[in-house]
Write a structure and sequence with these properties.
Blueprint lengths: L7 E12 L5 E13 L2 H12 L8 E6 L11 E3 L4 E3 L3
Antiparallel strand pairs: 1-2, 1-3, 2-4, 2-5
């Protein structure tokens, strides 16, 4: 019996590390993409394909599994969160 596992929803967030005016590090959200994938590794690959050459400006990435029953904005659709920064300082 060959049973396929259900696809899961993931949100992939791409961040740039910056310094604030006080010299403290903070992460600035550059792009956020919802994808449907088998696993987190594949979700990251799909999201990287979506942003293409823009990933050269990315310092860190976070992949989050979205709760069951949550429907992503649109499968593999890019949501641009420009200038949205999380100042941890």
């Amino acid at each position: 019996m060959n049973e396929e596992l259900p696809m899961k929803n993931y949100r992939v967030s791409f961040y740039k590390d910056l310094l604030n005016s006080n010299g403290h590090n903070f992460r600035c959200l550059q792009r956020q993409i919802d994808v449907v994938s088998d696993d987190p590794s594949q979700a990251l690959i799909l999201a990287k394909q979506e942003i293409g050459s823009e990933r050269l400006n990315i310092d860190s990435v976070k992949v989050v599994h979205l709760a069951n029953g949550y429907s992503p904005r649109t499968s593999r659709q890019m949501f641009v969160a420009s200038r949205t920064c999380d100042d941890a300082a």
